[in-house]
Amino acid sequence: MAWLPRTLFGRLVLVMTAGLLLAQLLGAALHLTELRRTVGRTVSQELAQRVTAVYHAIDSQSGAERERLARLLSTPRQQLTLEIQAPRASDDVAMFPEILDGIAALLGPGVEVRAVRLPRIGDFVFDFYIRLSTGDWLRIQGNAPTEIFAWPWHLLVNLGVMLGAVILLVWFAARMTVRPLTDLARAARDLGEDLRRPPLAEDGPSEVRQAAHAFNAMQTRIRHDIEERERFLAAVSHDLKTPVTRLKLRSEMLADTELRQRFLHDLDDMQELLGGTLDFLQGKAVEEAMQPVDLVAMAETLTDDFIEAGGIVTLRAPDALRIVARPRALRRAMANLIDNALKYGNRADVSLSTAKDGELLIAIADAGPGLPEAELEQVFEPFYRMETSRNRDTGGVGLGLAIVRQIARSHGGDVSLENRAAGGLRALLRLPRVA
Question: Which CATH number do you get for residue 383?
């Protein structure tokens, strides 16, 4: 449902507030209904008795005595007059039917009563015509005290104050409930960037303490496993590099020049593959402190280096773009993308810009054949290469884009590829200003 808040905190506050509001409104409605019925019954009975007593007193008189008695019995809240005719009775539904029923019951079935104006909540004004025995009409009009039947604004104000207090309590309770989940989600997100982050505080309710304890235990196990893998890789790196170096030294002593070059070429391939693999597995590309970086200056230096090496590289960028990043890692990512563009697309058009949401965009386009849509994501997998010959000069070792993605995600960004409509491929590196 699109109208629901996206966060658990918002949904809890909405549901609990809506439930409490509905309960309060239903309670207020029931209270008002019962109050109306009780007060209405009491006032109606009293009014019916007064009307009946006044009617009998006046009907028992004759001539001028009736008018004089009507004036004497009139009060500021009840005026009595004698009328020759009576208007038609009102068609409104009586909110207090007890009044008419009580008058009719006390006067008896032989007396006609016409209610021209009926009382209602907020406006308890009445206007009755009762036929006298002589055929004239006794008009009784008046009103009840305003404070009795007026709208209970004080009740509504009290209801609003109570509801406001309850909403604050709901907000506080939902906050306390959701905060441990928010901390756990933040810790899980940070865990992917820093396995050595401080453990979660194991406090709060028992369920929260258990979840925090389990998360800390998982973090410890993962960190120990990674450290063990790093120690293993360091040992493998040392053990493999040593025989490769010895083989290179022995190859230098070969008398056959062509055979010596082949041996050295194969050993260089092995050494590059070994070094790239170990760097990727150990995450050395992202083992660097964050610091402010002038992205434009870095891009200008890179493009100048590639141009001096004979590459066709252009740069379009603003005067300055500042970012907090890992300088060597970011330079390596941009260099890998530019190198791929030159290797497979003959040129690299680099552009730096800022997106509407504040992200920094580094786009590198080439003029090559592009890639099949099914492989635009697959090429980011380690050791995946489009080059089937497995030639280091044309296909590399298949780790360049995997390392670029590793660097981008360590900054809180990402990298993607897309085919250009005009031909060629475009790599888009997205980075937040503050990783």
Answer: 3.30.565.10
CA distances from 434 to 185, 292, 300, 325, 412 (A): 20, 9, 21, 7, 9
Quick: pLDDT tens for 397-430. 567 788 888 888 888 889 999 998 888 899 999 9
Neighbour-count burial of 82, counting CB atoms closer than 10 A to its CB (0-12 exposed, 13-18 middle, 19+ buried) = middle
Q: Say if residue 278 is in the same domain as residue 292.
A: no
Dist CA 110 CA 25 (whole Å): 45
Q: Which residues contact 198 (CB under 8 A, 6 or more apart)?
A: none
Say if residue 52 is in the same domain as residue 136: yes
CATH number of the structural domain spanning residue 205: 1.10.287.130
List the beta bridge partners of residue 233: none
pTM: 0.47
Q: Are residues 23 and 107 in the same domain?
A: yes
**Long-range pairs of 171-175 with CB within 8 A, sequence gap ≥ 24:** 171/13, 173/16, 174/9, 174/12, 174/13, 174/16, 175/9
* DSSP 8-class letter at 252: H
Structural domain contains residue 236: yes
Q: What is the mean pLDDT of the chain?
A: 80
Question: Residue 15 — pLDDT band, cuts 50, 70, 90?
Answer: confident
